[in-house]
Amino acid sequence: MNDQRHDHEPDRPGARRARSRWWNVGLAGMTGLALTTSLGIGGAPATGTVDRTLTATDDRPGKPDHASTDNKDHEGKGKKGTRKGTPVPCSADALIAAITLGNARGGAVLDLASKCTYLLTADIDDGAGLPEITAPITLNGGTHTSITRAAAAPLFRILTVEAGGDLTLNHLTITGGQTTDNGGGILVNTGGTLATKHSTIIRNIAGGSGGGILSFGNTSIDSSTISYNSAIIDGGGINSQRQIYLTNSFIVNNQTSINSGGGAAIVGSAAIAKTAITGNGAGNAGGGLVIFAAAAAITDSKIVDNASANNGGGISVPDGAQLTLRRVAVADNRAGGTGGGLFVNLNNQVVVEDARFERNTATGDGGGISNLSDTVVRQSKLSDNQADEGAGVFNGATATLTLYSTKVVKNTAVTDGGGIFNEAGGTVELNTATGTTVAKNRPNNCVNVTGCPD
User: Smallest Cα–Cα separation from 251: which of 287, 275, 217, 220?
Assistant: First the structure.
């Protein structure tokens, strides 16, 4: 019998409810770029802040010996010398039994069948179609291996990882999960850990937060795709409440219907590298992603063609965050409010280096960047952005904007401040001696900016 229960997992002891706040390509040209996760420029966190909080997945103590992720045939014909896991026939019942036994024995490496869909038909464990993960469990997929909820089945997510659980997914697709609660595809509760490698989390739905993944534990997403997931509140693709390491991945075409972080909502520490965040949408703010109170570094990545109904078409930074962007392209994003590319609200510290803000648009202010806090921009370019005021950058009355060796060119404002609009009381430091240029903007270059040419 189907036991359809929808207990609110994040409210369990030790877990925090996902935050609900009022804030919403390609990856070409990034091969070989170095991964940089340290912070430490200007007012940003000291070098190593993110590095110290994020631990490489395979170096965590207590993990079992995993079958090699290079083994392309997980059904017993592995390469010479390769450790193999336990084969699991193409049957949902067999997978359920294997996970149950693995939990009981303190861990397991399970080799799922290639060209197999493990079709789940019932909520068997507190809102999930598979047993809760309570030990180190590795699920190795193969060619076209997926785990999915049957379309006619009652609503449930695919997997829940509990305290002490350590789930690794290799070459596997998780799809079809749907819950009225949080974590449509996967829920990681406090004390749990999730790592995905060469895997896809696609077309999962949450009635709360985290359409694809909601994690209160440590999460590592490597060489994976999070796509076409949706949530009502925060994090259409991913909602990370603690620590997340995301590299060589795609966050594509996810959405939230009424709130923030179409692609991802980040609350804890984050290191994002060599990743494309594109085509995502938010019903409120942070179309690509929203960075809540967090220390976050984004390097060698693209945030392109995202949209929000309110602020931050590409990125929204609501309150209390420390964000560094290095070698990041922020382009073709759209905001129905302010900050087409990047919206920085009060009480944040943001550093931008070697970045490009191009062709972003905002119905209100700040086509490229809308800054209400303390933002430093170095060796970057803002061009071809559009907004009502401050098409390149809008700087608020209590904000400080510092530019070094930066070009603000060919931006177009409907009303005023094609390049930079500085509200009375705000501070803009151009540092023209370092090579900062504000030129060829329409209808003018600057408003209330000392040393800026007309």
Answer: 275
Q: Are the CB atoms for 448 and 419 separated by under 8 Å?
A: no
pLDDT of residue 297: 98
Residue 188 per-residue DSSP state? E
Report in angstroms the alpha-carbon separations of 411 from 55, 297, 393, 416: 41, 27, 9, 11
Tokens of 63: 């993990």
Residues 6+ apart with CB under 8 A from 372: 344, 345, 346, 396, 398, 399
Which contacts (CB < 8 Å, 24+ apart) does range 68-76 have?
A: 69/140, 69/170, 69/171, 69/197, 69/198, 71/140, 72/142, 72/143, 73/114, 73/142, 74/111, 74/112, 74/114, 74/140, 74/141, 74/142, 74/171, 75/111, 75/113, 75/114, 75/142, 76/111
Q: Find, among 228, 300, 294, 240, the residue nearest to 264 by Cα.
A: 240
Residue recorded with tokens 């559009």? 386
Q: How far apart are CA 277 and CA 451, in angstroms?
A: 36
Mean pLDDT, rounded, for 225-250: 98
CA torsion angle 161 167 173 176 (round to 10): 0
∠ CA 182-188-191, nearest 5°, is: 135
Under 8 Å between Cβ of 407 and 434: no
pLDDT recorded at residue 283? 97
13-to-4, 57, 172, 199 alpha-carbon distances in Å: 22, 25, 31, 30
**Which amino acid, 350?**
V
pLDDT tens digit sequence for 183-234: 999 999 999 999 999 999 999 999 999 999 999 999 999 999 999 999 999 9
Query: What is the sign, positive or negative, of the torsion defined by CA atoms of 150, 155, 160, 162?
Result: negative
Please, are residues 208 and 19 in contact by the beta-carbon 8 Å criterion?
no
pTM (predicted TM-score):
0.83
Place of tokens 């609200």: 345
Give the model's pLDDT for residue 453: 87
- For residue 64, give both structure tokens: 């079992």
Is residue 260 within 8 Å of 287, Cβ to Cβ? Answer: no
